[in-house]
Amino acid sequence: MSRPSQRTFEQRLADGVVIGAEGYVFELERRGYIKAGPYVPEVILDEPDALRQLHREFLRAGSDVMVALTYYAHREKLKDVGRDGDLEQMNRQAVRIANEIAAEGGALVAGNICNTWSYEPADPVASGAVVRAQYEEQLGWAVEEGVDFVIAETYDHVGEALIGLDVCKELRLPAMVTFASVQPAGTYDGYDYVDACAMLADRGAAAVGLNCSRGPETMLPLLERIRSAVDVAVAAQPVPYRTTATTAAFESLPGFPIQLESHQCTRFEMADFARRARDIGVDYIGICCGGAPHHVRAMAEALGRETPASRYSPALELHPVLGGADRELMGGWAAGAP
Asked: What are the chain's domains?
C-alpha cells in the first residue's frame, strides 16, 4: 500500500489542528450534479471536473484533507439508483481525483466510509456481515489507489462503527470515527455519545468525535464532554446550520434537507465555532453538510492560517458604499481574529 503524503495523519495532528472540509454531496447538489434524496455521488463518473473543482476550492480555502467522495458510494445505495454496476469504477475514480488535487497543495488524502443503512442492531451478526462486505470492497480499492487514512463517519449505531474501525485496522489504515448525533443523548443502539466515542478510542481509532446532524451551538457541549473522556484526537465537523436546544439536530429543522437556507450559519459564525472548538482542545476541525468554501476559509483564518484564497478575503473598507464599516458589519470577527 502506498500513502500519498510524506507525513502521516498522526504526524499532522501532532503539528496542530487539522482543518477538514466535507459536505460534498450537499454542495454538489446545490450546483446541480447530485440528486437530493438518494444523495449518491454519481458526479464522480458523470461530471468529474465538477468534483475536481470543489476539491480545489476546499484546498484553496485551507482544508488540510481531500476526502475521496465515496460517501454513499457503497453497494446498497448504488442499487437504489441502478448503478451498482459502477461500484468499483466510482470508488477508484473518487480516490484518484482526491489524490490528484491533494498533490496541488500537499494535503492528506482520506478514504471514506459511512453509515450503510444495512445495519440492524436486532440482527447484528447477519446485518454486520453485509456491512463488513461493503466496507471491505470500498476500502480495498482505496488502499490500492492510495490513501493516508480513513474517515468513517455519520454513524448512528456503535455496532456499525466498530465494524468500520475493524476493517480499517485489518487494512492497517488509521481511522477517524465520528458519530451523527440525531437523538438528544445517544446512539440508536443505546450508547451515550461520549461512551460511544470512548469505546472507539479504546479499540484503536486515531481520532473520534462527531460529524453532521448538529450545528455549532448544539455540538460544542458534547465535544467538551468527549474531550474530557478520551486520550486520542477529537474531531468535530458540524453542519453550518443554527440548531438549538429544541431542534438539536438539523434533521428536525423545518425544510430539511433542501429548504434550509434560512437556518444557514454565516462564515463568521463558523469562524467563531472553529476558535471555540480549538480552545476546548478539538484536534480536527471541519464542516459537514451545507458547508461551502467560504465557510472553510473563514474557519482557517480564524485559526491563524493564511490560505491561497485569503488573497480574496473581504476588504470592506474599500467598498465604495460601505467604506470603513467593515468591522461592524463583520460582527467583530475581523477584530477578534488571531
From this structure: 9-336 (3.20.20.330)
